[in-house]
Automatic annotation (TrEMBL):
InterPro entries: Tim21 (IPR013261), Tim21_IMS_sf (IPR038552). Essential component of the TIM23 complex, a complex that mediates the translocation of transit peptide-containing proteins across the mitochondrial inner membrane. Belongs to the TIM21 family. One of its GO terms (cellular component) is TIM23 mitochondrial import inner membrane translocase complex. This is Mitochondrial import inner membrane translocase subunit Tim21. It comes from Anopheles coluzzii. Its main location: mitochondrion. Residues 72-85 have a biased composition (Polar residues). It is found in: Mitochondrion inner membrane; Mitochondrion membrane. It holds the Pfam family TIM21.
Amino acid sequence: LLYLSNLVKGSTQLIAFNCAKSVIKQKFPAFCHKMSLLALRPLLVRQRNLSLSLLRYTRPLPSLVCRYSTGNAPNHSSKSLSAGSDRTDVSTDVRPIGERVKENTKTASYMGVILLGVGVTGMLFYVIFWELFSSDSPNNIYSEALERVKEEPRVKDALGAPIKGYGEETRRGRRTRVAHTQYVKDGVEYIRMQFHVQGFRNRGTVHLEKRKTDAGGYEYRYLFVQLDYNPHSPIILEDNRLQQDAMRSAASPMPQPFL
């Protein structure tokens, strides 16, 4: 701003001097002709100084050189960026090997516990599904036998309707699940079960046994109700033991005589 102010000031003085000089020459030519050199010397000196000042002020402004990151300069920055990216690829895990091994072992143990839990949960779901929905499960066999006992007229007359069934009783009077046993004999699967029934007059115990057939289902070997007040006179609903044993004997090969 100071530079521009001086430039304008010098230009104004030079223009004013030239204008005054022209006016004097036009208005007073005789005066100018008669003026001595001593009288014009100060004016000439002043004009020269103003001209020098104007030339000095009219010099071109020093160029401000700004070097931008162009040309060969990006090589250094690109090298630094590539070096920085290379450094980021290096693992920052500077923990001791023992600590890392310990952490990996802990993670593996957690995964093992999770997999074990998933396996146990799947097994529980399978058992529950088999107990509730399979027709060959002990729970369904008990339900089917209880319904058959309830519909038997002789049992109704002996115990008194309505009739309810329950499992074994503990010393504290609590009723547990129905007792049952599964076993294999001569390659055939059997299930044996016992539970209690009670009416408004008497109580009794239900005994049953089923065998697995070649078709994959179960059939009764026997089913009877033993009354508590008259245990020697059971109410037999089914007894197929003789028939099944005879069929099994006929199907088994005859032993060869010893020669």
